[in-house]
Amino acid sequence: MPKELKSRDFVISLKDIRNQFGDHILHNQLNLDIRKGEVLGIVGGSGTGKSVLMRTIVGLNHKAAGTIKILGQDVDQISQAELASLRQRMGVLFQDGALFSSLTVSQNIEAVINEHTNLPAQFVREIAALKIALAGLPIEAGGKYPSELSGGMRKRAGIARALALDPDILFLDEPTAGLDPIGAAQFDDLIAKLQDTLGLTVIMITHDLDSLHAICNRIGVLLDKKIKVGTITELSKEEDPWIKEYFGGPRGRAATRSHD
Ligand SMILES: Nc1ncnc2c1ncn2[C@@H]1O[C@H](COP(=O)(O)OP(=O)(O)OP(=O)(O)O)[C@@H](O)[C@H]1O
Fold first, then answer.
1. 55 has pLDDT over 70
2. Please, what is the end-to-end C-alpha distance for the chain in angstroms?
3. Interface TM-score (ipTM) > 0.90
4. Among 31, 62, 159, 169, fewest CB within 10 Å belongs to which?
5. Atom of ligand 1 minimally distant from the CA of 52
6. Cβ–Cβ < 8 Å for 178, 221
7. Mutate to test the pocket of ligand 1, among 18, 19, 21, 60 (most ligand atoms within 8 A of CB)
8. How buried is 83 (Cβ within 10 angstroms: 0-12 exposed, 13-18 middle, 19+ buried)?
9. Dihedral angle over CA of 214, 172, 57, 170, nearest 10
């Protein structure tokens, strides 16, 4: 089980968030506080807006209403320059990894660093090599193109790139999707290790019940346009039918047993 959280600081606070596309309201008066150093899993039925919520926090989706505070700063109350530097403190791994296929793994990471700094090329290459090692890839992977890597290695390359600017907060959209159970478990270990060694706060959208049990301190369930947050034990006591089925159904029970 994940270790107990000590810090109660909030790194992200969402208040009364509304997201809508046309008449379709996805989130309404959604409140969420994310604690420093926690691994928060986000689950919910298809189309409940898990990805939209993540994109809203990182600034890729424009909210219709509400307040977002990141590391104590209200994103609507700061200058563009302050917002840009705040965004650099968040690393994102999108579902498809989203690496540039025409660049090697190392070049993918170097591109992010070069976009935000003026460091000498050799130094940037060394930082990229460090990130590649942190993500658990062999050093040679840096010279390979994404198409030359396995799915699991591509995910690790995506993590290396998400870590390029030393973020405080890491967002992962279904990181273990498409991996076999062994690859998924190894990836969970990597996330837990990175969280621990780098002191990251991790927000992870997932359908993987094993990941939720193995590495998440708390889970947020998107439900009725809001998010209900708790530990698995707390959520397992909820009466809501979707939550009951999710954690108490055959797959949920099997995952609970294997992590007891
Ligand atoms: N830019 C957009 N314009 C219009 N509708 C959008 C946009 N982005 C998302 N949506 C809609 O919002 C809804 C939620 O999408 P989102 O991808 O966040 O769901 P999800 O909970 O992550 O789903 P899944 O588990 O299937 O990946 C969907 O109905 C989607 O079509």
1. yes
2. 8
3. yes
4. 62
5. 18
6. no
7. 21
8. middle
9. 80
For the CA of 173, the nearest atom of ligand 1: 22
Residue length, the chain? 260
- The type of residue at 192 is A
Residue 30 has pLDDT above 80, yes or no: yes
**Tokens found for residue 38:** 């926690």
Distance 26 CA to ligand 1 centre (A): 8
Helix (H, G, I), strand (E, B) or coil at 143: helix
How, if at all, do strands 39-44 and 65-70 pair? Answer: unpaired
Neighbours of 22 (CB within 10 A): 5
Listed by start position, the domains of the chain span 99-166
Q: Distance between CA 257 and CA 260 in Å, rounded? A: 5
Q: How far is the CA of 53 from the centre of ligand 1 (A)?
A: 9
Mean pLDDT of 92-107: 89
In one-letter notation, the amino acid at residue 74 is D
119-139: pLDDT as tens digits = 999 999 999 999 999 999 999
Q: Give residue-wise pLDDT tens across range 57-75.
A: 999 999 999 999 999 999 9
Who lines ligand 1 at CB under 6 A?
21, 26, 44, 46-52
Nearest CA to ligand 1 atom 31: 47
Going from the Cα of 171 to the center of ligand 1, the distance in angstroms, rounded, reads 17
Contact 19, 53 (CB under 8 A): yes
The tokens describing 156, both together, are 């690790």
pLDDT over 70 (residue 24)? yes
Q: For residue 31, give the 3-state DSSP assignment.
A: strand
pLDDT of residue 253: 67
